[in-house]
Amino acid sequence: MTGAAAKGPVIAVVGPSGVGKDSLMSALAVSGPQLRVMRRVVTRAPEAGGEDYQPVSEAEFSALAGNGVFALHWQAHGLCYGIPRDIEKQREGSGGVLVNLSRTVLLEAQEVFGDFIVLSVTARQEVLAERLAARGREDAANVQKRLARAVNPLPGGLSRVHEIDNSGALSKAVNAALAVIQPERA
């Protein structure tokens, strides 16, 4: 039998800061061995911590974008983010590629990637506040700004959106996400 391997969907994991997107993605990659995680390219200092990302300077990012390295790129919160085109290689023979995206680029991503699922990760406000405070990255005023943005809706026109509540045990959120991503196994 010849031919290209089937491509898994791009699975956008979106939600407010502190909701546990990175924890959910890591746990899903372990729980769903055919799932892969795409590293973003970000104009953030390497010592900033948080997600596993490829840090670059603004000049490097501009050069990468100019050379067509990204399948998708955007700006948010004073930083530039990019998803390299090699996401297409990761999709081959996979159960899907998990990628942390901004709500602002979801419609463009749906068009670019075709087979596209959105996991909208949520958590109760008090849980978000506690997690943001525990991170210690922002002062109280910035935590309040992040909490205010947490209620921003997703854009209309998305075809496959599933809400995943991550207020409690991570395992519960993982099981809910797996039921969406791999419904035949649930």
UniProtKB/TrEMBL annotation:
E.C. no: 2.7.4.23
Residues annotated as transmembrane: none
Matches recorded under Gene3D superfamilies: P-loop containing nucleotide triphosphate hydrolases
Domain of life (superkingdom): Bacteria
Keyword GTP-binding: no
Pathway annotation: Metabolic intermediate biosynthesis; 5-phospho-alpha-D-ribose 1-diphosphate biosynthesis; 5-phospho-alpha-D-ribose 1-diphosphate from D-ribose 5-phosphate (route II): step 3/3
Reactions listed under catalytic activity: alpha-D-ribose 1,5-bisphosphate + ATP = 5-phospho-alpha-D-ribose 1-diphosphate + ADP
Chain residues that bind ATP: 15-22
HAMAP family linked to this entry: PhnN (MF_00836)
NCBIfam families: phosphon_PhnN (TIGR02322)
Protein family according to the UniProt entry: Belongs to the ribose 1,5-bisphosphokinase family.
Protein function: Catalyzes the phosphorylation of ribose 1,5-bisphosphate to 5-phospho-D-ribosyl alpha-1-diphosphate (PRPP).
Designated name of the protein: Ribose 1,5-bisphosphate phosphokinase PhnN
Species: Leisingera daeponensis
Lineage of the organism: Bacteria, Pseudomonadati, Pseudomonadota, Alphaproteobacteria, Rhodobacterales
